[in-house]
Each structure stands twice: as structure tokens, then as C-alpha cells.
Amino acid sequence: IENGINVALQINGRTQKLLVDSRMTLLDALRERLALTGSKKGCDHGQCGACTVLLDGRRVLSCLTLAATCEDKAVTTIEGLADGDNGPTGRLHPMQTAFIKHDGFQCGYCTPGQICSAVALMSEAKNGEASYVTRNVRQTAKPVKLSDEEIRERMSGNICRCGAYPNIVDAIREVHGDKAVAQV
Ligand code: FES
Ligand code: FES
């Protein structure tokens, strides 16, 4: 490969060594080199959120992330959330279960990105990361309780052309439950 770079990626708990073009996105590396096609290519321009994955626990748009910059970082894709893909129990992640229960999808194209984003949203709230909605933006030390408006705002980078938004909010609210204590 011209401009080739050796990179070791930690994908869903496994080390994957790849020789990639230095311009290859993480999304293309996942889909085309590792056959992890759960992450979807919607726009390839950072506008739809379909390609969202977790990088060291933070949500990122994999279409805007170069694979070569992910050396030794932990990448979690939708395939890595369910215990069934990696573990012995075959158990879905609670967010996946909630999306099914609340019909949080129709065609499903946006769903892997929605779920990865929703999982990251939960840890942002747990870590007391600042409110996007209130003017009083701040970092709190305590977990934050998310209003529906706050959930919608924090999920606004994930577009759903089927309009499953109300059910997505229902699913996230259920998982969010009473795990957080302080109201924003
Ligand atoms: Fe990455 Fe649309 S495919 S944001
Ligand atoms: Fe079809 Fe969201 S379920 S795009």
C-alpha cells in the first residue's frame, strides 16, 4: 500500500494488526478490512451519526477518524456491545434490549450509531458532564438526570430518516432510569 502504515487496533477487546493507507478512515477499516459492517456509512461526511463508535469510551464519528490515529486505542463497535458476539452468555447490552422493547428503529440503518451514541451518553451523564440544553453549562461532579429535552439534544448528532426519535428517547430514558440522581 502506498502511504501504508502499520497500526494495531484494539477492536472489541481483540488486537487487530493492519497495514492501512494513511488516509483510510476508521469506518472503512472496520467495514472493509475487518468485516465489521455494523457501523454504517450514511453520509461519510460527519453529518448523520450512522458511523458512531466508541473510542476509549467516547463517541466518535468513525468516518471522520483516521484509522492510523487509533493505535492502541480501544474501539467498541455495535458488534462489541452484545455479550453474544464476544462472550458466552449471548446477552444483549441493556441499550440494545431497550431499543427492541421500545421499537427504537424501523429500517435499522441508523440504529448501530444511535445505540453507540446512547451508550456513550449514559457514561457522560454518569460522569456529570455538562448540560447542553441549559444556559448554565457546567461540569458537575455528580451524575446528571437527563430530561427528554436533554436526551434529544445529546442525541441530535444521530439522524434517523425513519423518524423513530420518540421511541429512541423512550428507550434511552428507560435505561437511564434512576441511575442518575441530580436534575439538570
Ligand atoms: Fe459518519 Fe455520516 S457516515 S457521520
Ligand atoms: Fe431507519 Fe433510523 S430506523 S434511519
From TrEMBL:
Keyword Secreted: no
An example molecular function term from Gene Ontology annotations: 2 iron, 2 sulfur cluster binding
Keywords assigned by UniProt, alphabetized: 2Fe-2S, Iron, Iron-sulfur, Metal-binding, Oxidoreductase
Ranges where the 2Fe-2S ferredoxin-type domain occurs: 5-81
Keyword Repressor assigned: no
Protein name per the record: 2Fe-2S iron-sulfur cluster binding domain-containing protein
Organism expressing this protein natively: Spirosoma agri
